[in-house]
């Protein structure tokens, strides 16, 4: 190769390197959906997020970023005005009309149709990892979750009972709902428990008679919800709760809100923590 050809090759490689580096630095991500935000961060691109929605509270640094709003308050104009290069949005969280506007904008759009199963957790982590060119990190993250679930399964071999539980979502006393199928209530089966309520899909208002009839051994809540109602003692004042085994024994437990409900990067951690809460015999002596 001649000296001039070698110089041109070096210059070409330098240009490519600068272009790739510049492209990576210019990645501007907007996320809509807390599980998706957490996943982007877990994969190593938290610093590329320029804005997110109001539910994205973890990791804490996300709370310092501009907010695009909440559910019906999220608009295509508000997102595109921030000049993102990549938008990652949850299908059932953002209005379909908004998603269609974003799809027609020319900005890369990843729509995640999230469901509450570990298989779907794997699926959307892989989907986001591919969009970010973080496939290796995605595999490591999935392996971490699977390892934690395996640990939880091993712990459950020493469990002496299969408790009945009801998952509760609330904001103070104004909204107290039972979390049924297709909600974070699906976590119970991974934690060696069964749902005490049947034929409840989605979130339904807590019914006093139905709760007493179900007679759960445990109530599972999010930390913020339990705190907003006055803790365990406050929950005991909700009609019907004191008449259940969970109420009589004060077996009302809670976990970090997003860790419990997201079925995301911390799903394995949530399952392990819930296993211990629902099976006191497994707690360290």
From TrEMBL:
PROSITE patterns: FE_B12_PBP (PS50983). The keyword Cell inner membrane does not apply. Residues 28-285 form the Fe/B12 periplasmic-binding domain. The keyword Signal applies. Coiled coil: none annotated. Keywords: Signal. It comes from the Bacteria. InterPro entries: ABC_Transporter_SBP, ABC_transptr_periplasmic_BD. Residues 1-24 form the signal peptide. This is ABC transporter substrate-binding protein. It comes from Dawidia soli. The lineage of its organism: Bacteria, Pseudomonadati, Bacteroidota, Cytophagia, Cytophagales.
């Amino acid at each position: 190769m001649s000296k001039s050809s070698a110089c041109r090759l070096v210059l070409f490689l330098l240009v490519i390197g600068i272009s790739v580096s510049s492209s990576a630095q210019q990645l501007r991500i907007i996320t809509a959906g807390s599980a998706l935000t957490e996943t982007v961060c877990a994969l190593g691109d938290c610093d590329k997020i320029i804005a997110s929605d109001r539910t994205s509270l973890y990791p804490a640094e996300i709370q310092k970023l501009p907010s695009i709003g909440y559910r019906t308050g999220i608009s295509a104009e508000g997102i595109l005005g921030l000049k993102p290069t990549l938008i990652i949005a949850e299908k059932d969280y953002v209005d379909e009309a908004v998603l269609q506007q974003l799809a027609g904008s020319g900005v890369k759009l990843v729509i995640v149709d999230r469901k509450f199963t570990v298989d779907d957790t794997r699926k959307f982590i892989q989907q986001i990892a591919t969009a970010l060119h973080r496939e290796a990190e995605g595999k490591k993250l999935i392996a971490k979750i699977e390892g934690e679930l395996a640990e939880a399964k091993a712990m459950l071999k020493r469990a002496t009972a299969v408790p009945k539980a009801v998952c509760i979502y609330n904001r103070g006393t104004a909204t107290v709902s039972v979390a049924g199928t297709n909600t974070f209530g699906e976590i119970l089966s991974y934690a060696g428990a069964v749902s005490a309520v049947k034929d409840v899909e989605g979130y339904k208002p807590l019914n006093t008679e139905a709760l007493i009839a179900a007679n759960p051994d445990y109530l599972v809540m999010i930390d913020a919800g339990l705190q907003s109602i006055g803790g365990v003692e406050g929950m005991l004042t909700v009609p019907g709760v004191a008449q259940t085994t969970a109420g009589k024994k004060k077996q009302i437990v809670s976990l970090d809100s997003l860790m419990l409900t997201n079925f995301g990067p911390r799903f394995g951690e949530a399952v392990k923590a819930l296993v211990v809460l629902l099976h006191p015999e497994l707690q360290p002596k």
